[in-house]
Amino acid sequence: AVNDDTDTLVRLSERLFAAGVLPYYLHLLDRVQGAAHFEVDDSRARDLHAGMRGRLPGYLVPRLVREEPGAPGKTLLI
To answer: Residue 13: which of 65, 75, 59 has the closest Cα?
Structure first.
């Protein structure tokens, strides 16, 4: 998987902020054919997000979301 450890995600948020970008969304992968090897399951994603919350100030913790087919917008998972 890609970006599937807390250290990487914490560094990403810090570097985005240093570049003037406020992390807003952390998207779970759209479930499409041929990309399953990149998928992080919901439980693992919630654990990663909790790890970020434990190490970053709130403004650097992005919202954990997924795009759901037919939904009018992003689905917030946390």
So the answer is: 59
